[in-house]
Design goal:
The protein is an alpha/beta fold and about 200 residues long. It contains 8 helices and 5 strands, in the order αβαβααβαβααβα. The longest helix is centred in the middle third of the chain and has 20 residues, at about 75-95.
């Protein structure tokens, strides 16, 4: 709990100054979808393209975060919500730092995604739904997670024993089940240019 004597300190180097130096705006790209839908692969592909354009970026990957920042959390509804809350706070700080923050989390619940949208402000939150049928995700299952979930070895597994709530108003919906990686990445980059996040060239 925050102490009574904790006061927010305003820096002299502002987000606007960082964005000016970076020559691009900072936003949160929130990739959401089932396990195996291609979130991480797409996020890292988009980051590579942005990096090559000289942008400052960072990918928050679901598995990586659970090795450190959220290592104490499980997969109950409450822990999932806390996982996303922590990530949301980190993404907000990275946005203030002038960085394009890309996240790859299942984030199955609309209320949690909406929480982050409001936290970083709606104008800075771009929700990208990696739409992929669970059958296709299972065929891609290199980690064997779906097989374990079907066997009851993994409880609360999204898409099998725990629900996934599809975005109702995603900024971008990508059919990652039937569209190859490059065209999906190009659509993300095109959206960023259209919104003035990166130079349109």
């Amino acid at each position: 709990m925050r102490g009574k004597n904790t006061v927010w300190h305003s820096a002299t180097v502002t987000r606007a100054r960082r964005e000016q130096q970076n020559k691009h705006k900072s936003v949160a790209l929130w990739f959401t979808g089932l396990s195996g839908s291609g979130k991480s692969t797409l996020a890292h592909t988009v980051e590579e393209a942005l990096h090559n354009k000289g942008c400052r970026t960072f990918v928050f990957d679901g598995d990586n975060v659970r090795h450190g920042l959220c290592a104490d959390l499980g997969f109950s509804d409450e822990d999932r919500a806390e996982n996303i809350r922590r990530i949301g706070e980190m993404v907000r700080l990275f946005s203030e730092a002038g960085v394009i923050a890309l996240t790859a989390f299942i984030s199955p619940f609309r209320r949690d995604r909406e929480f982050v949208r409001q936290l970083v402000t709606p104008a800075d939150f771009i929700e990208i739904y990696c739409q992929c049928d669970v059958e296709i995700c299972e065929r891609r299952d290199v980690k064997g997670l779906y097989k374990k979930a079907r066997a009851g070895e993994i409880p609360d597994f999204t898409g099998i024993s725990s629900p996934y709530e599809e975005p109702q108003n995603a900024d971008l919906v990508l059919d990652t089940g039937h569209t190859s990686l490059a065209p999906c990445a190009e659509r993300v980059l095109a959206l960023l240019a259209q919104r003035g996040v990166i130079p349109n060239r």
